[in-house]
Each structure stands twice: as C-alpha cells, then as structure tokens.
Amino acid sequence: MKRKKAQDKTRGERAEAGCEVDEDRALDFYRSMARVRKFEEAAAQYVREGSIPGFIHAYIGEEAVAVGVCGALEPGDYVTSTHRGHGHALSRGLSMKSVMAELWGKRDGTNLGRGGSMHIFDASRHFLGTNGIVAGGVPLAAGAAFAIRYKKTGQIAVSFVGDGGTNHGAFLETLNIAAAFDLPLVIVVENNLYATSTPYACVTKTQDIALRGTAVGMAAETVDGNDVEEVHATARKAVARARGGSRPSLLVCQTYRTVGHYEGEPVAGTYRTWEEVEAWKQKDPIINYKKRLIERYGATIAEQLDRIDEEAGQEVASAVEFSRNAPFCAPVEATEHVYG
Amino acid sequence: MKRKKAQDKTRGERAEAGCEVDEDRALDFYRSMARVRKFEEAAAQYVREGSIPGFIHAYIGEEAVAVGVCGALEPGDYVTSTHRGHGHALSRGLSMKSVMAELWGKRDGTNLGRGGSMHIFDASRHFLGTNGIVAGGVPLAAGAAFAIRYKKTGQIAVSFVGDGGTNHGAFLETLNIAAAFDLPLVIVVENNLYATSTPYACVTKTQDIALRGTAVGMAAETVDGNDVEEVHATARKAVARARGGSRPSLLVCQTYRTVGHYEGEPVAGTYRTWEEVEAWKQKDPIINYKKRLIERYGATIAEQLDRIDEEAGQEVASAVEFSRNAPFCAPVEATEHVYG
Amino acid sequence: MFTDNDRQITGIQAIQEALAEEMRRDPNVVVFGEGIGERGGCFGQTKGLWNECGPERLIDTPISELAFTGMGIGASMAGLRPVIDLMYIEFMMDAAGQVVHQAAKVRYMSGGQFHCPLVLVAAIGRYNNAGPHHSGCYYPMFMHVPGLIVVVPSSARDLKGLLKSSIRSDDPVLFLEHKSLFSKKMAVPEGEFLTPLGQANVCRVGTDASIVAIGQMVEYSLAAATSLAKNGIEVEVIDPRTLVPLDEETVVRSVQKTRRLLVIDEAHETCNAAAEIATRVIEKAFDYLDAPIVRLSGAKVHVPYAPPMEQFVAPSPERIEQTVKELVA
Amino acid sequence: MFTDNDRQITGIQAIQEALAEEMRRDPNVVVFGEGIGERGGCFGQTKGLWNECGPERLIDTPISELAFTGMGIGASMAGLRPVIDLMYIEFMMDAAGQVVHQAAKVRYMSGGQFHCPLVLVAAIGRYNNAGPHHSGCYYPMFMHVPGLIVVVPSSARDLKGLLKSSIRSDDPVLFLEHKSLFSKKMAVPEGEFLTPLGQANVCRVGTDASIVAIGQMVEYSLAAATSLAKNGIEVEVIDPRTLVPLDEETVVRSVQKTRRLLVIDEAHETCNAAAEIATRVIEKAFDYLDAPIVRLSGAKVHVPYAPPMEQFVAPSPERIEQTVKELVA
Ligand SMILES: Cc1ncc(C[n+]2csc(CCOP(=O)(O)OP(=O)(O)O)c2C)c(N)n1
Ligand SMILES: Cc1ncc(C[n+]2csc(CCOP(=O)(O)OP(=O)(O)O)c2C)c(N)n1
Ligand SMILES: [Mg+2]
Ligand SMILES: [Mg+2]
User: Fold this and answer.
1) Cα–Cα dist C152/C155, whole Å
2) Which of A104, A337, B10, C135 sits 20 to 30 Å CA-CA off C224?
3) How close does chain A come to D51, measured CA to CA in Å?
4) Given a cut of 60, is residue C33 above it in pLDDT?
5) Is C293 found in the same domain as C212?
6) DSSP labels for D130-147?
7) How far is CA B137 from CA A254, A323, B175, C130, C142, in A?
8) Per-residue pLDDT averaged across C179-194, rounded?
9) pLDDT at D6
10) pLDDT > 70 fraction of chain A, expressed in percent and rounded
C-alpha cells in the first residue's frame, strides 16, 4: 500500500477506509498524544536545566505512532521499545509519575532509577523495556511472541524500531524468523527519515522499508505516521492478523521528530534544514488532529480539547513535583538484582 | 528472472541467451569442474581414512557455480569463500598441491597448515579465505570492493555464501550497504536447499532469495546453478555491472550437494530422501555438461573429455602424494604470526 | 556419594538425559538452535527427544544467532525457560550484543522485575583439528560480564547434574561443553540428580600442592597427579565446575593446606579464568603461599589446525607434571 | 620531555588532530562510522575533517556494526588502513564475530599473508549517567583475544600520540577513549609526535607503593597520590596505556622497588585487566612483594543510571587513598 497523505483524504474516504473512530475514542487519542507531548516537553526542560541526569531522546512529532498502535492493543500484549521510548511507555499505560521518576533516577521510578530513559521496564504492563541498543528489542519481542503462541495465551507482541534500526542484523534476522515461524508479532517502524544525523536515503538504495517485509513473506504496509487514525486502523488489521491467525506484520509509519536527536542537539541547521523541520511541523500530529476534530465535531469540542491539554499539563507538573522530591536508592543498592 | 531448467532450453535458446561459449572455453569449464570433483573425492577419501586431520565440507554437485562465476573474473579480483570452499579456491587458480597440503596440515599448504579446509588463504590470488563462520566472508568482500573503488584499480570483489548464510546478519546488513554504497561486488548465493540438515523452506516463508536483493535495490538474478554456462553468462553480466558501473549484484544459483554436509555425514536417509538425492544426481553439473558437449560437438570431443578426466585424476593423485610426504611446521611455530 | 558400579555413558548421553528429564518435568523448557530438531543436533545433543517433544519444543532456527538468542531472551522474560544451543562458542560472538546487553542486564536494569531463566549451550575447546574457528574456549570473555553464570563441566556426571541445575536457574547460564567429553564413556549414576551451581569438586585430595583445573584440564591434571604420586608428590586437584559464581572457599582452603597453587586453563592466557582465580587467592590467602602461584594456560595465539601445532598451544599432562615438580622443588 | 607551557586542548581536539595528521600523511586512512561524516561524529571526533577528506574518506554507515566492521577488515586486507568508529564500546558487541574471528585471526590463520591494519575506536566508561547500555569498559573481553592490540589512553597527549601509532600499526588495534577525557583541556605539545604502543607511562615516581591504574583511574590515582604525599606516603603511579601488549617490565621494576602493588581498573572485577596485571606480577616478582597485591575494580554489576549508584560502582580517589593507607600500614 502506497502512502497517502492524511490531508489528501476526504472525510468519507477516511470513514470508508475504516480510519475514523467515534468521538470518545478520538478524545482518548488526543489525550494520549497530549500527555506524551507535555511529558516530553517537561522532560526536555529538566534535562536542559540539569535536574534530570543523563540524556533523553524526545518523541516530539511522532506521538501518533505510539498512540495509534498502542490503542489497538489489549492490556496483556507485550511491547518492546527503543531509545526514544517515553511515548511507548506512556501509551502502554505505565504510570506517568513512575516514568518521570525513572528519568530523575529516583527509587520511585518504574525500575528504581537504575535504568533511566533508555531502560524503562514495567512487568505489570508487559512492557519489556525501552532499549539503549538500536534494534535490540526486536528479537525480544519475537521471543515474547513465541512464548505467547507456545502457551496459547492469545496475547500478541509489538516491537517499535526506528528507520535506522532496520539496517541492523537484529531487525533483519528477526524479520525473517517472524515470517518463517508465523509469530503473533507486529513490528512497527518509526521512519523519521534520520538515524541521528544520517538520512535514511544516504545509507540505503531504496527507501521503501516495507519491501523488506515483503521480501521475506511478511504482510507489510506503509502509513502516514502523523495520522493517529490511519496508524490505528492499520495497526488494528496487523493486530488482528497476529492475534487471530498468528501472522506477523511490518507496519512502516512515516513520521518526523521536530526536535533534535537527543535533547540538546540543535533542532535544525546542521544535517536538517529549517525548511524541512518547518514543513513537518505543519504536519504536527497533535495540532492537526485537533483541527480535524474541530472540523468533524464542531467548535464545541474545542473546549474539551483545551481542557485535555490543560489536564495533561497538570498531570505532568505533578509527576515532576513527585519525581523531584522522591528519594534516590542508597548507593549500595547498586549491588542488588544481579547474580554472581 | 525466474529460474528455467537447463534441460528446458534448446541450443538455439541457449546461444541467444548468450550462454553458449566456444569450444576452448567449454573444455576449460569442463576441466575446472573435473579438477574440483576429483579433488573433493580424494579429499573425502583421505578424511575417511584419517590421514587428513579435521573435517571437510565437500563441494560435490555444486562445481558449476564456482567454475561459472570464477570463469568470469580477472586475476586481480578479490574472492571470499565459505566453509565449503575448495571449489572456489581451485577455480581461482590456487595451486592444487598447496590447497591439498593445507588440508593435510602441512607446511607446504597455502598457509602453512595453520588453517586447514575452512581457512585457505592465498594473497597472490587475492583469495581472502575460505571461512569457518557462516556469512563471515560477505562483509570482507564488501570491504575489498570498497578499497578497490577507493583506489580506482578496476578490480571487483566476489563473495560466495550459502542459502543458510542468507539468514545471517552479516549477509543481510552487507546486502543493504553494498546497494547503498554502489560497491563493485557480486554476492553469489549457493542455494543447495539446506543449511546442514535444515531445509531453507523450514526457516523462511518465501524461498525466493533474489527478492532480498530487490528489496534493498540491488540487481538480482536466479539461475540454474548446475548449468555452468548459464551461471557463467549471468555472472559475466554481474561482473560487468560491478566493473563498469560499480553496481553490485546478487546472483542466486540453485544447486545441490550430492554428498553429506561434511564428509562422514550420511548422504541421505536422515533429513534428505534418497529419491531427492537421486533426482539431483540426474542433474549432475559435470556428467550433464559432458553429455551436452558431446551432443554439441560430436563424439570426437568425448575422447578429449575423458583425457581431461584422467589428467585431473593424475593431478589430484600427485597433489596427494606431495601432501602426504610434506613436513609439518614445528610445534613451536604455532606462536608465530600473531602480535601480542 | 555414588557407587563404583555406576553405569558408563557418554557425555552426549548425559546431556540428552538432562534435557529429557527437565523437558518432562517442566513444559516451559524449550530448545532453540540450528539442527537441534529431528536431526538431534550437530553433536547429537538432542537425539531421542524428537518423538516426545516435537517441533513445538525443539525449534530449528535459521543461522541467525543474534536473533534467535534474542528470541530466547524475550521468551524467557515472557515465562519460558529456553535452552539456546549455539553449537560452537565461536558463534556466540555473533549473539554477543543480545547476551551482554539484554540477557545479562535485564534483571539488573529492571530492578528485578524481569528474569532471564535461560541456558546458552555451546561446545568449547581444542578437539581433533577443527581449526581456528572451531576450537576456542572464550569463557573468560563472558565471565567478565556481570549477571551471567558460567559453567564448564569436566565429566559426564557433571554435564548431567549441572545442566539440570542450569535449566532451573533463574539467571542466564553459559553452559560450555568441552568437546572431548562428547564421545567418552564415564560413570553417571542412574536416575535424577542435581549438581549445585557454585560448588567446586575436589577430584583428588593431596597435600603437596593444589591444582585448580578447568574443563579438559581436569583430566590432564588427574593424569599428571597419578604419575606424580608415583614420585611421592601428592597434589590436590580441584575442578571449580562453575567459574561464575566461583567457589573461592574450596580453593582457598586447599591452598591454606598445600601452600602451593597451580591454575590450569585451556583458554588463552590474557585475562583468563586462571588469572581471576590466581588473583582471588592472592587477595584471600597470600600469606599462606610458600611459592608464587603458577598459571598454565592456552597460548596467546589462536588454535591452529595442524596437529603438532594444535597440541602445542594448550597445557599437556606432561607439562603439568613438570610444572608441579618445579613448584614443589 | 615536553615543556610546561604546552598548549591546552581537549581530548576530542587531540583525537581530531591525530586523525587529521594521519589522513594527510597516508591516503589509505579512511574512517567508517555512524555520523562521522559532515556531522563530525557523535562526540565531535571527526569535526573539521570534512572539508579536507569529504565523503570518500569519511564514510557514514548505516547502523550495521557487524557489516561495516567486517568491511573495514576486508578493506584493510585489500590495502587500506581504516579507522572504524563504533561510538560506544557496547556496540562493538554486535560486531564481535568479525572482530574476534576475522580481524584478530586473519594474520595468524593466513600464515602472515594478510594483515589487518585497522583501528577500532570506541568510547568507554562511566560518565554523566548514561545508563547501563552506555557506560561500560569491556576491554578485558577483548584483551583475551590474541591478535588484538588494546589501547586505553588517560590523557589528551596520549590520545593523540597513541592514536597516531595505532593507525600506523599493522595489527588491529582497539583504541578505547574514556569519555571523561573528551571535553577536558589538557597539555598537548604542538606538532607531530608519536607515543609508542607497549610502553607504560610512569606518571608519578614514588617509593612506598606502586599503583597501576587504567583510563580515568589514572586521574583518580594521581589525586589520591597528591593527598597521600601530604601524609608522607609516596606512591608511584603507572599508566600502562596499552593493555595488550602490556609493558610488564615497567610494572615489575616498580614493584621490585616499592614492594607493594595496588591495581585499579574501572572494568568489572572478574577477569579484568587488573587480574591479568596482578597475575603477571605474581609470576614475575612474587618474592619482592611485602604484602598481598590489592585490586580495586568496577563492581561486579552493570553501571546503573542514578547518580549515587553510578558513583558507587567504580573506585573513587577516596577509596584509592584509603586502600593505599591500609596497604602501607
Ligand atoms: C547497536 C547500536 N548502534 C548505535 C547506537 C547509537 N545510536 C543511538 S540512537 C541512534 C540512531 C537510531 O536511529 P533510528 O533507529 O532511526 O531511531 P530514531 O533515533 O530516529 O528514533 C544511534 C545510531 C546504538 N544505540 N545501538
Ligand atoms: C555463524 C555460524 N553459525 C553456525 C555455523 C555452523 N555451520 C557450519 S556450516 C552450516 C550450514 C551452512 O549452510 P549454508 O550457508 O546453506 O551452506 P552449505 O553448507 O549448504 O554450503 C552451519 C550452520 C557456522 N559455521 N557459523
Ligand atoms: Mg530514525
Ligand atoms: Mg546450503
């Protein structure tokens, strides 16, 4: 399926394509995206300020992918994430306070402050971790998918990976295995066009990532990753294939980060032009969704959306407050949770 | 290009497809294949007998691939090989005596008996080694191709790899890089349908290996690997693409080993049926080529071919004699040729 | 503990038994690897399991070490207890990213939320001229990585007892089988037994010097010890069996008694297990030593193919004997 | 050797200079890595080279560590001298198969027909809470592998001088840069100079005890030494600089003088460089030792994220000082 821009579609076409959701769902999507956005903005600020130690990779501009995909999942489904994983964690229902506290390195973090941004785990949410190793989570998700099928539990597994990750053996090998073994797995590529500073087009001859799925016999689709409803609709089909028929899918979401690779990197001017960034900001998944919902449901909904924005901001502020005041683990606790 | 069996083609079609070569060339092809066959038969015998230490993977049944491809190369071209690499070594002009002596672990071996069957190197032939690591040679060949292009020497690089190797990250990652970087490289897949005991069809969803090339934007063709002239003709095109335009190719050769995975493994009865092996023996690249040349040039050539068989046998016998009597390196020489 | 008339079985049979018993006991045990299905594995290690376990639990993988090792890790996080057969330890290098950064770290990073109960099985050691890509030991590289248990058995009995314990471990285990054990027949008791991880085996009691030997070096050391006994030299031979965690106490106690220590390790010398063991003894029992600790190791070169050179690069019973004589002189 | 009024530059600038000089000198030097082209590398290590060298010699790779490392090896066999930038040493695990089985072995296996003149560059060590996937040292794993040279500089001067020597080496070099050096300004002489591989640096002369320290531990040890001197304790501080080959002689000579040895290594304890150094000293200078060798190492756990825990897992100047006091007591 060739990508078709969201704005190219009429409302009728969207409904027909099964993209359009009901109002409650739409508000959920919007809320989820707004929460991620506000979270990332705050996290970035506290990294700049130095109160969050370490570094983070913000998900700003890509929120529709995590929200659209995770909206298609059941609570028991397994998810592996990336170095840019706060959005996945929040969209999977991890406690915002705990995720924020993890960034602050605090004991009340999802995993006691031992991991930080690139190592967020939550067993209660079947969240198998953000990951500091590019494509490192892809085989893990395939393994979870294997376990699921073996135990016939009816769950599925989802793995997020970047465009850069699709050139790594961990992704490429797993893609073949997932297809060969009929694993109940959805691999979601977040194609934001760059791996750090490297344009995907400079390290590949063709940029149609979905072909890699097709080549190994896997269902593969490409969607507008900035359109939460399109992502969601396609993810639902992929999830159904996995859950119903134990068939894996490759879902390529075209998107863009409108911030630097990590917080602190210039947004543009080095390897990306300001024009390019600006053009993508015009396609902002949250702003445009707000516009679309107002078009669709009329001005009355604007107020609700504003309230959602506000609530998300408050939730983030209270997560920050909580994290700032939370205690660290004692230094000697560093020796726990490892054998030998 | 869909594979078409050699026997399906008429002579006219073959000539038209640019497959048919002149008589001298045909005799060369036959001689090269016969030499490899006789070499492998002898090596296998001396492994069984215990006078060759270690183990070997014989190339019997696949000779047309090495001979067809290497026949398209210039002396300066780089080649990387596999664990099943005697055929590649001989087809690249390595001294048969030295290769045999390497198998015997002798000082007169290509590399002083330090490597044996899976580690045959010859710098004078730009032969970058048989390899004990599946797909281990593929990135090496890409590197040689990079060096060539960088130095503008007009050489090219060729990498042989098995079907099993095409599921390894070293192959998959390199495939993308070769395409992206326009490397003067030909990757030759020897698809003998099995990786050890594992049918390719059991660990892949689709068996069209060429698709993997296409998916990353590389020229890819599939040929009858038991037809030396078809292999050669296609290899020539790939070599021309590499040498002329610095464009890589993936060349998939469908073939079969009519012996066990390693010498000592039963030929059939475990993971392969006798019927399957027998059917492939009917497609033996050497016997059939002999038949075809007799058809083509008449009975007079039969005598020449018989003489070639005999000469090959004699050459092998004298390589064996040489190797048997050659000295080992002194034990302490094990400490040489390594730093630190 | 075991009677003298134990039955004799090969190392491979011991492994088969351990797998069969554990797979029967626990349906969460599955095996991933190349050719470990109907074929029974490259060394026969899964022979006889096919009828009982079939393709659901014996998963023939493509040659994708990184991915199928990672899959095993993910499966272990989701409740299975995979045994991942990597054939030769050399091929574990292609899976090192997943082993070091995921398997070894998941429990630690997640603050104990996730465990990786899996066993990475691989064959090690010089054996019959397999050449430089099929003869290495390399366990010291993985001993360095926190979170990994490293087991190197030296007998069929321990192959069985330790493999069973490894499968029951909640932490990832590297279970490394010296090829010299595969076809050798050795005494193994009937029926089920476990050998605990982290417990050394004093294979021979002695008073004049202690030898700590790993893998095939245990056999070599016992041969040297027998010969030395004829000269009135009684050496104690200790097989640590698990290198991580290391049973320091048994080693230190022995050194306190004999006051002399020889550590024998087939792995290349630099940063090997022998260096770690020697250093621990220095840290814990320096004052008991009457002579420098001596280390005999695999040479600091790769394992060459030709038989005379291949033999040269590892300690031999003769060299061990000679070294002990010098040590106690 | 160098004057006091050497100019001060950062570690990254030192690396840039070494690369620039060597690339100017030898057209066969090329750099492979992620983002090392126009962007100048994740740490700025190739900044300033783009105009001169361009995309032909600064090759931005996809995230395919195994393949581009293997490419570097193949290119080196075909006559180039690649510098392969792996960013963090963690990502070298994904290339371990090519590093261990090809780069380290080609010269040996081929009987000296082929050489691998290449440099594998990676950043190591705890630094600013990068978390468990970006804070490791791991050099001991690679020290174990014959055929690899392992270099761990501890100053901007050595970063420059050793990188230049590494690029000129005909054997593969792991060149490991501690992140703490990147933005620190240190004295580096103007103009070209080489620091030889295999030669330790005696950073401070002393009589009461010897410290062998690696990477950032050199800085910590010198701080401890200054403080100890105020208490009248004079320690000798030795930086081996290259761990393989190791300048045993300098270490042994120092121990013969001071009769006490402390080895400090940020890498996890088990089978680390400190274990190797301690064992060599036992082998060569046991009789000179007046006290057990002491080893201070990175903890046997991964490097956690939270600042207090991160600090806890490596030796500190205070712990070094305290340990020396106990050692000389
Ligand atoms: C195996 C590995 N190699 C390199 C890195 C360094 N690194 C971190 S993020 C990144 C870029 C990833 O690009 P992509 O997969 O497209 O994700 P994005 O950052 O664009 O979301 C790189 C190279 C890493 N973490 N792991
Ligand atoms: C990385 C790696 N994994 C596993 C092996 C063990 N092994 C040796 S040959 C082989 C099968 C290779 O199959 P294929 O690539 O199809 O080549 P063929 O033997 O059929 O010629 C395997 C699995 C190896 N040598 N290297
Ligand atoms: Mg990206
Ligand atoms: Mg094959």
Assistant:
1) 10
2) C135
3) 15
4) yes
5) yes
6) --TTS----HHHHHTSTT
7) 35, 51, 12, 18, 25
8) 97
9) 76
10) 96
Handedness of CA A107, A109, A111, A115 (dihedral sign): negative
- E-strand spans in chain D? 7-10, 29-33, 58-60, 81-88, 119-124, 149-151, 173-178, 185-188, 201-204, 209-213, 235-239, 242-244, 261-268, 294-298
**C195 lies in some domain:** no
Average pLDDT over residues D124-149: 98
**Contact (Cβ atoms closer than 8 angstroms) between residue A258 and residue A267:** yes
Residue C145 to residue C120: CA distance in whole angstroms: 14
Ligand nearest to the CA of B167: 2
DSSP string across C101-161 = IIITTHHHHTTTS-----EEEEEES--SS--TTS----HHHHHTSTT-EEE---SHHHHHH
Point out the domain boundary residue: C136, C158, C187.
C187
Ligand 1 nearest atom to the CA of residue D133, by list position: 25
Give the dihedral sign, CA C21/C24/C28/C33. positive
Residue A29 CA to ligand 4 center (angstroms) comes to 49
A9: confidence class by pLDDT, cuts 50, 70, 90: low
* Burial environment of residue C237 by CB neighbours within 10 A (0 to 12, 13 to 18, 19 or more): buried
- pLDDT, tens digit, for every residue of B166-214? 999 999 999 999 999 999 999 999 999 999 999 999 999 999 999 999 9
Q: What is the C-alpha to C-alpha distance for residues B109 and B116, in angstroms, rounded to an integer? A: 8
- Predicted confidence (pLDDT) per residue in B231-273, tens digit: 999 999 999 999 998 999 999 999 999 999 999 999 999 999 9
CB of B84 closer than 6 A to ligand 2? yes
| Measured CA distances, B74 to A90, B21, B142, B243, C51 (Å) | 59, 17, 17, 10, 53
The reply to whether C252 and C133 lie within a common domain is no
pLDDT band at B9, cuts 50/70/90? low
For chain D, how many structural domains are there in total? 2
Q: CB contact, 8 Å: C131 with chain B?
A: yes
Cβ contact A91:A34 at 8 Å = no
Percent of chain A at pLDDT > 90 equals: 92
Task: Say which residue the tokens 């929460």 belong to.
Answer: A35
**What is the pTM for the complete model shown?**
0.97
pLDDT score for B245: 87
Q: What is the mean pLDDT of residues A71-93?
A: 98
Q: Degrees (nearest 5) of the Cα angle D276, D277, D278?
A: 90
Answer whether residue A264 shows pLDDT above 90: yes
Contact assignment for B168 to A173 by CB distance below 8 Å? yes
Ligand 3 center to residue A162 CA distance, Å? 5
What CA dihedral angle connects D261, D266, D272 and D276, to 10 degrees?
-30
The alpha carbon of A219 and the centre of ligand 2 are apart by a number of angstroms equal to: 28
For residues D229 and D287, membership in a common domain is answered with yes
Judge: A112–C146 Cβ closer than 8 Å, yes or no: no
Phi-psi region of D112 (alpha: psi -120 to 50; beta: other; left: phi over 0): left
CATH code for position D267? 3.40.50.920
CA–CA dist C304, C126 (Å, integer): 9
Run of H or E residues at C88: strand C81-88
Report the nearest atom of ligand 1 relative to the CA of A83. 9
Length of chain C measured in residues:
329
Is the domain of D102 the same as that of D233? no
Angular region, B18: left φ>0, alpha ψ -120 to 50, beta rest: left
Containing domain of residue D301, as a range?
A: 201-328
Long-range residue pairs from D247-254, CB within 8 A, at least 24 positions apart, any chain: D247/D198, D247/D199, D247/D200, D248/D280, D248/D284, D250/D199, D250/D200, D250/D202, D251/D200, D251/D210, D251/D212, D251/D277, D251/D280, D251/D281, D252/D280, D252/D281, D252/D284, D252/D285, D254/D202, D254/D210
Looking at C187, C213, C240, which one is the last position of a domain? C187
